[in-house]
Design a protein that fits this description.
By secondary structure, the chain is α+β, with helices and mostly antiparallel strands. It has 11 helices and 12 strands. The protein has a 6-stranded antiparallel β-sheet. It has a 4-stranded antiparallel β-sheet with strand order 3-8-5-6. A two-stranded antiparallel ribbon has the order 11-12. The longest helix has 16 residues.
Length: 302
């Protein structure tokens, strides 16, 4: 999988003297990344950038708010347009792609472990699964919640936050959506990947745990997940690697341990998922006492 590319149209003439140049949108950037003390909730603030991100997934729930501008993306087999103030919620492992629908797009995302959602906010999870809804229209009561989200260091506060969001969204009319063509049932090969993502998985060994031919497996896997098995496993390993970045491992070691061809291969896959290279995120991440991991905001001025 490759990140969506931006290129000038071949018919676009060079700018001439006296002709104003089009406004260039800011580049993709992660401005803040904070992990709670319980390490099961992460808060991220970022700019979209002009290219957006091609099809990818996360191994956790993604609960986000468009802070500025408008975003267009596809998720669950549905195309969405999300203007400022819209809330988006994506379940784990669901393939989605996103792009800027305005010059400047900023958003905040809360990444929540599946176990936390299941135990503390089952109604919110059911709301997403049962309606196949991924985007909710702007709601005045949601913005203050995301202002608080950056401070969810403890699980008790996070639980109260999820309940408050659930109440706000239940009273918000959803956008019209059709049922996703992708099944929510995990493919047998997905289960194998999820339990043994850090191991070397031989093709022959994988085939022993599956029913049907290799080509049947590839076809059904792609239909279930939206990705080929190899691409899915690489993305899954990149997702898991984000915690390793703070543990002193070099990028070359991480790439080797996770079965990538080399550091460059790992970096390309990481950037396709997160929009920034791993070394940039690694430099920003610091461990704060009693407050999880924090990322300093390069644009903040004290």
């Amino acid at each position: 999988m490759a990140r969506a590319r931006c290129a000038a149209s071949p018919d676009q003439a060079p700018s001439e003297i006296g002709v104003s140049r089009p406004v260039q949108p800011p580049e993709r950037a992660i401005l803040r990344w904070q992990v709670s003390a319980c390490e099961q909730i992460e808060f991220v603030q970022a700019r979209m950038g002009p290219c957006g991100l091609a099809g990818h997934f996360h191994d956790v729930w993604s609960i986000g708010l468009i802070l500025r501008g408008a975003c267009r993306f596809s998720a669950g087999g549905v195309e969405y347009h999300a203007p400022t103030g819209s809330v988006f919620i994506l379940p784990p492992y669901e393939l989605h792609a996103c792009g800027a629908a305005s010059v400047d797009v900023a958003y905040a995302v809360l990444y929540v472990e599946a176990a936390v959602m299941q135990q503390q906010a089952p109604r919110l999870a059911a709301l997403v699964h049962e309606t196949a809804q991924r985007v909710w229209q702007a709601h005045a009561g949601v913005q203050p919640l995301f202002d608080e989200a950056a401070h969810l260091a403890q699980m008790s506060a996070a639980c109260r936050w999820l309940i408050a969001l659930e109440r706000a969204l239940v009273s918000t009319p959803p956008q019209t959506a059709i049922r996703s063509s992708l099944t929510e049932t995990l493919h047998p090969l997905q289960r194998l990947f999820h339990t043994r993502w850090a191991e070397t998985i031989g093709l022959a060994e994988a085939e022993l745990s599956l029913v049907g031919s290799r080509w049947h497996t590839i076809r059904t896997f792609r239909r279930t997940t939206g990705l080929a098995p190899g691409a899915y496993l690489r993305q899954l390993r990149v997702q898991k690697s984000r915690r390793w970045l703070t543990e002193g491992h070099s990028l070359a070691d991480i790439a080797l341990q996770l079965g990538f061809a080399d550091q460059a291969h790992f970096t390309r896959t990481f950037k396709a998922v997160y929009g920034v290279p791993p070394n940039q995120l690694k430099k920003l991440l610091t461990r704060a006492p009693n407050d999880g991991l924090t990322v300093s905001d390069p644009e903040r001025r004290d």
